Amino acid sequence: MLELKNIEKKYTDFSLKDISFKIKQGEILSLIGPSGSGKSTIIKIITGIIKPDSGNLFIDRKDITGYPPEMRNFGYIPQTIGLFSHLNVMENIEFPLKFKKIGKKKRKEIVLSVLEDFGIKELLNRYPLNLSGGEKQKVALARAFVFNPYIILMDEPMNSIDYQIREKYLKFIKDISRKYGTPVIYVTHNFEEAMAISDRIIVMKEGKLIKQGNISDFIKNPDDVWIASFFRHKNIIFGYLKDREFRIDNSDLTIKTTLEGEGKTSIMIKGDEIILSKEKIFSSALNCFKGKIIDFTPDLYNREVVVDVRKVVFKVLITKESFEKLSLAGDSEVYLSFKANSVKKLKG
Length: 348
Ligand code: ADP
Ligand code: MG
Description:
The chain has nine helices and 20 strands. By secondary structure, it is of the alpha+beta class. It has two domains: 2-226, 3-Layer(aba) Sandwich (Rossmann fold), CATH 3.40.50.300; 227-346, CATH 2.40.50.100. It has helices at residues 39-47, 89-99, 104-118, 133-145, 166-180, 191-197, 215-220, 225-231, 320-325, and strands at residues 2-10, 15-23, 28-32, 54-59, 62-63, 74-77, 151-155, 184-188, 200-205, 208-213, 234-242, 245-248, 254-256, 263-270, 275-277, 287-298, 302-309, 312-319, 333-338, 344-346. Bound molecules: adenosine-5'-diphosphate and magnesium ion. Adenosine-5'-diphosphate (ADP) binds next to helix 1.
C-alpha cells in the first residue's frame, strides 16, 4: 500500500495543500481535476522527481520520503511519454532492466514476454519517431511494467491517443494492470475516462483534494458544482448485463448494448446522444422506447427534458430550438431512441 500523508508543496503562484490518500494493492485510482490543479505535481512527488516541502510518503508503512526515484521501483509515464528517441522499441523497453543490472539473456526473455503480453512484438525494431500515439503509449506502458514495479503512474495518457481508439486503449490499460496485479494511479481531466477505468476517484481543485470515493459516492453525493455539472446530463443506470442486453434493476426495461461480459454493473448514456421525437421513428438506433415527459429544466441554450419510461427516468438534452419546434410540454408522450453503442459501461 502506498500512502501520502499531509504532503505540501509551495510554488510562487501555486501550492499543494495537505494531500493525503492511500492506494491499495491491485487498485486503479484516478486523480482527476482541471488543468493546473496540481495533478502532475503530485505524481512527480510520488516518483521522487520533486521533493515535497513537508509531509511523508509510505510504502507498506515504511517511510520513503527521502528515497531517490531509482530506489522507489515505480513505473512512470509522463505527460510527454518520454521514450528515448535514439533507442528502438526493444532497447527502450530493455532500458530499466539494464539499469537494474539484469543479465542480457534474462533481459531479452523478459522483454519478449512483455512485448507478447502487450501485442506489440512487430514493433520491436522501430524507433519512436515511426510510432503512432497509441503505439508510443503502449511501448511506454510496457517499459513501465517490464521491471515489475510496485505501482504505475500515468499522467494524462489519452492526450497522445486518437479519439477513436481511446476506449480500446483504456480497456487495454485496465486488462494489463489486472493481469500483472499492479496498482495504477491514472491522471486525467476527463470524468468519463475516470469512471470507465477506476475503482476509486480522487478529485483535485486548486491544489486541494476535494473529494474521494467510488463512482456511486460521486453519483449520490457530487458535493461540488464542478462534479455535479458533470453528472447533470448523464443517465446512470444500474442493472444486469448478459448477451449484450442490459436489464435495468427494478424494471422490465431492457437496453440493447454492444458491451461484452456478464454480471451486475452500471451503464451511462449521455443526454445528448438520445433522440427525442413525437412519433416513433425507424432508424438504425436499436433502442426505442415510449415515455412521458415529467419535467424539463430551462438552460440558456439547451433544455434538459426528463422522461419517464416505465418507471425509468431518462434525461435528454436538446436545443431550445428543437424543444420549441416539437412543441413539447409536461405530460406529452414522446419516443426516445439511442444507439446500442451509446451505452457505456461504468466500473463496478
Ligand atoms: P496539472 O497537472 O493539474 O495541470 P500541475 O501540477 O502541472 O497541474 O501544475 C499546478 C500549478 O503549479 C500550475 O499553476 C503550474 O504553473 C505550477 N507549477 C508547476 N511546476 C512549477 C514550477 N516548477 N515552478 C513554479 N510553478 C509551477
Ligand atoms: Mg499535468
